[in-house]
Automatic annotation (TrEMBL):
SMART domains membership: CoA_binding (SM00881)
Gene3D superfamilies per UniProt: NAD(P)-binding Rossmann-like Domain, Winged helix-like DNA-binding domain superfamily/Winged helix DNA-binding domain
Residues within the DNA-binding region(s): 27-66
Protein's job: Modulates transcription in response to changes in cellular NADH/NAD(+) redox state.
Gene Ontology terms: cellular component: cytoplasm
Localization in the cell: Cytoplasm
Protein name (record): Redox-sensing transcriptional repressor Rex
């Protein structure tokens, strides 16, 4: 992922952050909530780094972007750090999210209880299939996609999830943008074209598996190499894989 920096709204609540730091903040937040639930008031940078699965130098650098430096010998105040990361991520109120496409994946997402505790509320479900419209899922009624503008406005929805087949996703994205949605999480395996000012993130588990497949393929090729040369290449490969996350 490119090292873009956050946009023109830099200021106390919108620090100029590298995109890789933004991507790690939710990991720190998840780890911090877990530590708070376990009754920890403070955490060392090493402890938080281990809980979040990153190295501690990277964590200290990330948190220094927020103006946070831990107190030597004490570490970070867990509650204060949660507050600050939630401020930066704009999670101080639960954001309303629309989900479009209530098939296999959409059903699973609509029924997932974990969004609520992570700052989001699935506020509306849409589908184009009249057979699905009217279905009740997790306290919500599936609406027809034609109702999108009205519901987006009523529920102040700015983020939407697309879980339709790929062939329908661009049209759905166009309708979402026209209704006022400015951030899209796309599960459909396709590239979406959106106007400037609209953010799209893509989730594709098959791509993640293909990347793991590449590493499996490489590992078996390296272990087949004889002696020292094979060991050196395996070590270089491990270091390279660790560097990818930086
Ligand atoms: N990203 C991932 O890791 C991942 C994993 C599984 C599936 N997928 C993708 O997610 C999408 C959904 O998969 P699924 O198995 O749930 O499919 P599905 O066929 O079960 O569900 C798709 C739903 O979208 C609805 N739909 C179709 N066109 C629409 C439109 N124009 N407006 C609104 N709703 C519309 C259909 O009526 C259906 O209910 C697919 O694109 C699939 O490839 C991605």
């Amino acid at each position: 992922m490119s090292q873009q920096r956050t946009g023109p709204t830099d200021g106390p609540d919108f620090p100029d952050l590298p995109e890789a730091t933004v991507a790690r903040l939710p990991e720190y937040l998840r780890a911090l909530h877990h530590l708070a639930e376990e009754g920890h008031d403070t955490v060392s940078s090493e402890g938080l780094a281990a809980a979040a699965g990153v190295n501690s130098a990277k964590l200290r650098k990330d948190l220094s972007h927020l103006g946070r430096t831990g107190t030597r010998g004490v570490g970070y105040d867990v509650t204060l750090l949660i507050d600050q990361i939630e401020q930066v991520l704009g999670l101080t109120h639960r954001r309303a999210v629309a989900l479009v496409g209530v098939g296999n994946l959409g059903h699973a997402l609509a029924g997932y209880a974990g969004f609520g505790s992570r700052g989001f509320r699935i506020a509306a479900l849409f589908d184009a299939d009249h057979g699905r419209v009217g279905e009740h899922i997790n306290g919500l009624v599936v609406r027809h996609i034609d109702d999108l503008p009205e519901v987006v406005d009523e529920e102040s929805i700015s983020i939407a999830v697309i879980a339709t087949p790929a062939h329908a996703a661009q049209n759905v994205a166009d309708r979402l943008v026209a209704a006022g949605v400015t951030s899209v999480l796309n599960f459909a395996p396709c590239v979406l074209n959106v106007p400037e000012g609209v953010d799209v993130r893509k989730v594709d588990l098959a791509i993640e598996l293909q990347i793991l497949s590449f590493h499996e393929h490489r590992k078996s090729a390296l272990t087949a190499l004889p002696g020292r040369a094979g060991q050196d290449l395996q070590r270089a490969d491990r270091l390279g894989a660790e560097a990818v996350g930086s």
